[in-house]
Amino acid sequence: MAPQPAAELGYKPLDGGWGWMVVFGAHISIGFAYSTSKALSIFYKAIQEDLGASYSETAWISSIMLAAMYAGGPVSSILVNRFGSRPIVILGGLMCGLSMATASFGNSIIYIYFFIGVIGGFGLSLNLNASLTIISKYFLIKRPLANGLAMAGSPVFLCFLAPLNQYLLDKFGWRGSLLILGGLILNCCVAGALMRPVIPPGQPSSCAPQKMVEEQPRQRNTKLKQSCMKNAKFLDLSFFKDRGFVIYLIGNVMFIFGAYAPIVFLSAYAIDQGVEEYSAAYLLTIMGFVDMFVRPGTGLLASSKWIRPRIQYFFSFAMVFNGTCHLLCPLMKSYPLLVVYAVFFGISFGMVFALIFECLMDLMGNQRFPSAVGLVTIIECFPMLLGPPTAGLLVDIFADYKYLFFMCGSVIVAGGLFLFVMNIYNYHMLEKEKTAKERQHNQKTIENQGQVSVSEAEMKHTSEAAVEQTEPEVKDKSGAQTDPRPEDAETPSI
């Protein structure tokens, strides 16, 4: 589909300028939001030994964190539209940083679930939603590229967080590592400070002089009503009437279910195959290194005139590619082959996440995107919550990692094929509906023109009849004034 017109926003986005600083801030914010839960997998074995937890129990840490990040979408949308992106990203950074520091003092797995999973995850949801929303306000034509650069924050941060966490684990243990990681996440507050609000042309800035005092209460009431109306739309279930949205949501849920378990268990799988711990951690670094270049490259490719109208099909291909990589992973037994898997995993994963929110913007438009992304994320929290623990349960039952890769790969491939087939159907139906509307519009136009012609003919006939009735009356009146009287004509002579 073509990009949404700027008229929907009420102003023309900058597509550059300070927007690139906003993209840099979003790069940091989204980087921590997506990479933190993955990089925590480095600590799982130490947490298992210290707290006596199983594989599936430790897998719940990342699952709860990601589920809270996605479930907080509607609340984050409301806060972003009420207060703007800048304060919300700063608040999210504070929440997540403090939750990591507090979790370092925990002595039970439930304690870890609450502070890292629930509080930390909700803080990350504030970062994610606010960053995506403000990018859609700064960019339109270059939006796929901007989204790709911002989403590249995840692999960039994963690239250095994975080996850094392994180093911190060896030096300070998992408790000291969480404390240091919490301090690093506070950099999201700096990223939030870069997210300057967009001021549409013709509207006064915050430093403009205030209007007359008697107008201020009326303006506050109007803003309050507008805010309430906006907030009421964030959980608007009317999105489910949109066929394209439902198709996107089903395919996306299938992808999310299988997307994160391979990342969570990749290091453990490599160690199980006899790979050294540091080398196993570097697999995530390799994946992240590849991913960081693929995301902006995919965004640039998606901005081209050949791909932009077919971006939904491109998204489907990326999903099938990603699932196929997981299906082939159990064949990779040696470290060089695992490196090859990590490279292709990074390519496919980067392609999907460079397009995942751009496709939603393409379907919903800039104005409806904050509401739609809030609804999508709260639904996605369920597969996000169940995916890694289900994979961990398979490992506990079969004592083999290959079954989790088979499960994740098959689900993702099925989701990609579903999106491809259903998007063909959706575009066919949209074209059919458009043709029917045009035909109906043309028919109404012809009927209106016929009615106008009949009305004009009736008016012409009525006017002619009125003229014919008026002319005899005029003649009678003029004849009575000019004819001589009969008495004068018949006067006898004497």
From TrEMBL:
Q: Does the keyword Repeat apply?
A: no
**What does UniProt give as GO cellular component?**
basolateral plasma membrane
Catalytic activity reported: 3-methyl-2-oxobutanoate(out) + H(+)(out) = 3-methyl-2-oxobutanoate(in) + H(+)(in); 4-methyl-2-oxopentanoate(out) + H(+)(out) = 4-methyl-2-oxopentanoate(in) + H(+)(in)
Location relative to the cell? Basolateral cell membrane
Give the way it sits in the membrane.
Multi-pass membrane protein
Sequence ranges assigned to domain Major facilitator superfamily (MFS) profile in this UniProt record = 21-427
Biased segments, Polar residues type: 443-454
Q: Where is this region: Disordered?
A: 436-494
Q: Is-annotated flag, keyword Cell membrane?
A: yes
Point to the regions of Basic and acidic residues compositional bias: 472-488
Q: Which residues cross the membrane?
A: 59-80, 87-105, 111-132, 144-164, 176-195, 245-269, 281-301, 313-333, 339-360, 372-391, 403-425
Per UniProt, which keywords does this protein have? Cell membrane, Membrane, Symport, Transmembrane, Transmembrane helix, Transport
Q: Which domain of life is it from?
A: Eukaryota
Q: Which GO terms describe its molecular function?
A: monocarboxylic acid transmembrane transporter activity; symporter activity
Q: Which family does it belong to?
A: Belongs to the major facilitator superfamily. Monocarboxylate porter (TC 2.A.1.13) family.
Q: What is this protein called?
A: Monocarboxylate transporter 2-like
Its organism's taxonomic lineage begins at: Eukaryota, Metazoa, Chordata, Craniata, Vertebrata
